[in-house]
Amino acid sequence: MPAQEGVAGGRLSYSRTFARRNSLAPSAVLSFMRVFASPVGSGSLWFDNLATADQVPVAYDPQARAFLPMPPFCRNRTIIGCNWVAPEEGAFCRSCAMTALAPDTSIPNAIPNWAKTEAAKRWVLDNLGRWHWFRPEDPGARPVFHMLAEGATPVPMGHVAGVVTISVAEADPVLRVTRREALEEPYRTMIGHMRHEIAHMLWWRLSLREDFIAAFRSTFGDERADYAASLQRHYSEGPPAGWESSYLTSYASAHPHEDWAETAAHMLHLIDITDSFAAAGLSAPNFPPPGWDPYSEPDAFRLVDVAANLVAGINHVNRSMGLSDVYPFVLSNVALHKLAFVHDWLRRGAQGL
């Protein structure tokens, strides 16, 4: 569904060259994500880099949100290219340590697909770390990941009691597009899967709070409705007529649990688009001034308005190359209030505020 109604347009422009960006002090670069100061020499590093331009090995420290030269590397660095630091030599990094079950490497393409899947997980965990989720200061449970390769049988992705199951086969673009078209979805990526399934786990964490459950049910509905029956009805009958006025996606209309997971994933989509836009040194009309941190913005409606204006322009640029819209969704008033609800709880929920 093209984002043509409910999202304002906007023009994009470069506010500075990358050369000037590189000349900024490290603290200025580190105020955003995805573009980092090199710890040795000049130049910048991107989130997935393993080495500097001069081939000095580096690793990302998610606690410091900075790259370090020659730290203890993650045990998975040589296997799947993990570029995070480890607490000590021979140990897993914070992200890889959450993977309790790795894929069967005898299945074709399991290792490269696993590598892409873990990279998506690191990206999303680092997003959530901006709000303190799953960092040392977070006193709650961490997600446990089961990363499964697919043989002859597809792997259903999902979450149960803190365990997130992911099919690494969907890192393959051909398979992913095939399933996206079969399900008539406008968007399907591994980062999207991670945000959606981790969102289920976040709901599980937040549901331990009585004040959350009452507020959730008043916004999303009663999650005690039969989940299996709801999904069966969704797949056999499709979404209800006029679902666009209340939900971000047709799948969100299936059950309150899926509405939460889709809405939370979209909140993370929108804030990360905005944050990455700023990190790349871009500007747009009505974009907040330099130094604005989207993750520190308390006003969800302002944040979504900024993001909506950005994606309208970026969608327009993508269409000039015959590419799909980067954000092919319409934001209704009901969906906006659900996004604000998610934003409020994700910003304060990790530390029980």
Report on the architecture of this protein.
The protein is of the alpha/beta class and 353 residues long. A hairpin with a 2-residue loop joins β8 (158-160) and β9. The chain folds into two domains: 13-32 and 110-348, no CATH class; 33-94, no CATH class. α4 (110-129) packs across α6, α6 crosses α9 and α9 crosses α10 (300-320). It has helices at 18-22, 26-29, 77-80, 110-129, 173-182, 190-206, 210-220, 227-237, 256-279, 300-320, 333-348; strands at residues 13-14, 35-37, 44-46, 58-61, 66-69, 99-101, 144-148, 158-160, 163-167, 282-283. It is globular and about 55 Å long.
Quick structural gist:
By secondary structure, this protein is α/β, with parallel strands linked by helices.
Order of helices and strands: EHHEEEEHEHEEEHHHHHEHH
Instruction: Output the radius of gyration.
Output: 20 Å
Can you tell me the overall shape? globular
Mean pLDDT: 88
Tally the helices: what do you get? 11
How many domains comprise the coordinates? 2
The largest pleated sheet is described as:
4 strands, mixed
Count of DSSP strands: 10
Strand content: 5-15%
Structural class: alpha/beta
Low-confidence stretches: 1-32
